[in-house]
Recover the amino acids of this structure.
């Protein structure tokens, strides 16, 4: 998804349209279709085309990217720029029959496909307005991990459902790359003008990645005043306070990285080793 976001989509679209228009008059579509689908090896081509067209998730992901980058550029007011990453992104979708399991409920694995689409909307809406100036997404933004918690099943006829119903909760971890170098999120957000001035100095990348200094959090917590609570302005103290509130949930997600030490491989007995029918 990040690779598609950083492409020069307008130039690619113009070039593709020019080539198609130039070649339409010289191509006999009837002869082309006959030669493509009547040769002995045409069955594999037909199957490949059908598989590509049937992968609805790809259409949904690129539809989100093209909408934000070409057709409906986000218009974010200057007054709310400093706290747009605390806003919600609302999307709507319909689930095809291929996403339902044998119980006629939406399959758990398909929630991750929906998350790809939602993340496409989120990152494009968040970064696209500033990408021309700051070149923030010329390099990769990698999905480092996802955790899902299922709350309610989605049936095949779930139309009249309360819009406040929660079906699943997910937390995603993203990694911002500059070539092979991992960039601290605070550095990227500050370079894009999405953070207010910080008292003192900016944090360096000498500490562990993704961690805020305890002194900063304690200072932010200790300087809360009634005026800052009711003010509409988002200063560094309020940003840090919201960040700390979210870290209460994110730290539990980060703790799951220790589970990779629990797998012993062949060092201890296993219940069994099973193969999929395709392997």
């Amino acid at each position: 998804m990040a690779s598609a976001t950083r492409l020069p989509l307008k130039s690619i679209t113009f070039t593709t349209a020019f080539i198609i228009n130039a070649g339409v008059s010289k191509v006999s579509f009837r002869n082309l279709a006959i030669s493509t689908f009547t040769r002995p090896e045409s069955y594999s081509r037909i199957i490949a085309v059908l598989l590509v067209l049937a992968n609805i998730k790809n259409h949904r992901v690129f539809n989100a990217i093209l909408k934000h980058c070409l057709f409906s550029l986000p218009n974010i007011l200057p007054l709310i720029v400093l706290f747009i990453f605390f806003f919600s992104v609302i999307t709507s979708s319909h689930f095809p029959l291929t996403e339902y399991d044998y119980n006629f409920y939406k399959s758990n694995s398909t929630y991750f496909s929906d998350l790809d689409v939602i993340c496409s909307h989120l990152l494009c809406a968040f970064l696209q307005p500033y990408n021309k100036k700051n070149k923030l997404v010329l390099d990769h933004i990698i999905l480092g991990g996802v955790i899902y918690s299922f709350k309610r099943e989605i049936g095949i006829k779930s139309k009249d459902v309360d819009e406040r119903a929660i079906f699943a909760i997910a937390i995603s971890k993203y990694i911002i790359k500059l070539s092979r170098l991992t960039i601290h999120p605070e550095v990227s957000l500050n370079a894009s003008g999405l953070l207010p001035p910080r008292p003192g100095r900016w944090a360096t990348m000498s500490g562990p990645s993704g961690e805020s200094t305890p002194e900063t959090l304690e200072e932010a917590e200790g300087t809360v005043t009634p005026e800052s609570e009711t003010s509409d302005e988002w200063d560094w103290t309020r940003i840090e306070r919201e960040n700390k509130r979210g870290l209460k949930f994110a730290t539990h997600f980060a703790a799951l990285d220790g589970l990779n030490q629990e797998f012993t491989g062949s060092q201890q007995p296993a219940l069994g080793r099973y193969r999929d029918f395709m392997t």
In short: Residues 2-195 form one domain. Residues 187 and 203 are 8 Å apart (CA to CA).
